[in-house]
Amino acid sequence: MRSDTLSYAGAEEPHFLEACTLCSKQLGHNKDIFMYRGNTPFCSQECRQEQIDNDEARERRWKVSSKKSKESSKKSATVQTGTLVASN
Ligand SMILES: [Zn+2]
Questions:
Q1: Of 22, 31, 48, 70, whose CB count within 10 A is highest?
Q2: 72, part of any domain
Q3: Residue 50 Cα to ligand 1 middle (Å)
């Protein structure tokens, strides 16, 4: 065990990869990390999917409130987001 974990504050260490964004479960180097939108890590597909669902729901609401159009029947907005990072 090295003691440099204490000196991480203020360093350029990418702290956003430390824990699952949804459940805050710690992400280990040997475990698969499920990325979403490039820089949002999740511990599992389930957690990521929940975040995607949340985001889509929020975006849909935002679009509806900012744009009072009646094009609510558009179903082509399904986007495959997220990249499975299984290396290392
Ligand atoms: Zn999680």
A1: 48
A2: no
A3: 10
